[in-house]
Q: What sequence folds into this?
């Protein structure tokens, strides 16, 4: 009910209402963009483009879905457009591999554990993120939404405007591609 009122106010030109609406979605949109682009700067650009498009088009929002779903769809379209421009860069700063994905959470920097295990987990995360960044976006996007954003298959299908079988197929293809990539990496390590 509160969301509907905020949307109406934002559609009437209330910028504070719009800011309140997007406040709860900023981190989620950023995480999605980061996982799909593999690059902090590209993800920040996509978030900015998403919010600019959202504010420019808030009057077109018909409340047929939640505001978050609408915003996420805009973000996914921006990721697709961005990928089409060939702007994805595979190298990321070391801060990306910290437990939270950013260096501002000081407590997480002092996470105790076996240093070898922590290092191996970070290497595995890096391999998975690179494989996802290298994968065609039509497969990486459903995978990220399903397993990293923890959406149901039905939610992913609705978000991407795909049939349920097509969504399941794309998720499966991404899983198989990741499995193949991981098998190759571990096979190489055994032979080193």
A:
């Amino acid at each position: 009910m509160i969301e509907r009122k905020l949307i109406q106010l934002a559609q009437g030109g209330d910028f504070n209402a719009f800011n309140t609406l997007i406040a709860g979605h900023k981190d989620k949109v950023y995480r999605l963009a980061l996982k799909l682009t593999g690059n902090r700067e590209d993800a920040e650009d996509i978030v900015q483009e998403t919010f600019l498009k959202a504010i420019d088009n808030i009057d077109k929002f018909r409340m047929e879905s939640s505001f978050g779903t609408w915003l996420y769809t805009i973000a996914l379209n921006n990721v697709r457009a961005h990928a089409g421009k060939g702007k994805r860069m595979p190298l990321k700063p070391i801060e990306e591999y910290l437990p939270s994905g950013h260096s501002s959470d000081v407590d997480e920097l002092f996470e105790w554990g076996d240093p070898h295990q922590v290092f191996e987990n970070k290497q595995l995360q890096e391999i998975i993120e690179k494989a996802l960044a290298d994968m065609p976006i039509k497969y990486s996007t459903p995978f990220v939404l399903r397993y990293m954003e923890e959406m149901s298959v039905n939610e992913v299908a609705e978000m991407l405007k795909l049939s349920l079988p097509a969504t399941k197929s794309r998720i499966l293809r991404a899983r198989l591609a990741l499995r193949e990539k991981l098998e190759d990496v571990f096979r190489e390590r055994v032979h080193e």
Observations:
- The domain at 1-89 is CATH 1.10.1740.10 (Rna Polymerase Sigma Factor; Chain: A).
- The CA atoms of residues 130 and 171 lie 17 Å apart.
